[in-house]
Design goal:
It is globular and about 40 Å long. It has six helices and nine strands, in the order E-E-E-H-E-H-E-H-E-H-E-E-H-E-H. The protein is α/β, with parallel strands linked by helices.
Length: 200
Amino acid sequence: MGTAGIVLAAGTATRMGENKVLLRVGEEALVRRVARAALEAGLDPVLMVVGHEAGRLERELADLPCRTVSNPAFEKGMNTSLDAGVGALPAGVAAAVVLLADMPFVDAAMVRSVVLRHEETGAPLVVSRYGSVLAPPTLYARALFAELRSGEGDGRGREVVKRHLGEAAYVDWPKEALLDVDVAEDLERARARLAKGVAR
């Protein structure tokens, strides 16, 4: 098998005050926008890790060919979602791209570029670089899966990246493409950029 996708969408979004990944950016919810990018990039399977308001997310994605994975421990942090997502990958998957459901400017072309860099270099880790900032989409080869499957809280993916920077390949993106929606101001910025026709 090829490369899978893991979209992390289980959190409670306490800073937003409501489930941010169900908020509309452009014509669709954030979570649907990111799921569609993963699918259009050819990732297979695409696993959507859900927890908080899982039923609402499942209804939002019902017509898309992605599979939801339940994380009953989502309140303990993002690491538990990584654990659930990686644990649900089929045995033959060679690599997985991890995406966050609150990054509206990650599109299919970006995801495809990350996969292509892995295929070109054979690097066990491919990291997106926005200026000096490393952020998803990030590709982890199967050899790194075990390192993603332990610990509570947040930051497990970043820790794995730090440990393997010497083996990593990179894909560079404009700094403006790095926007994660945490508070209302982030959402308005994303909507304003899309209204102006700025994809990233």
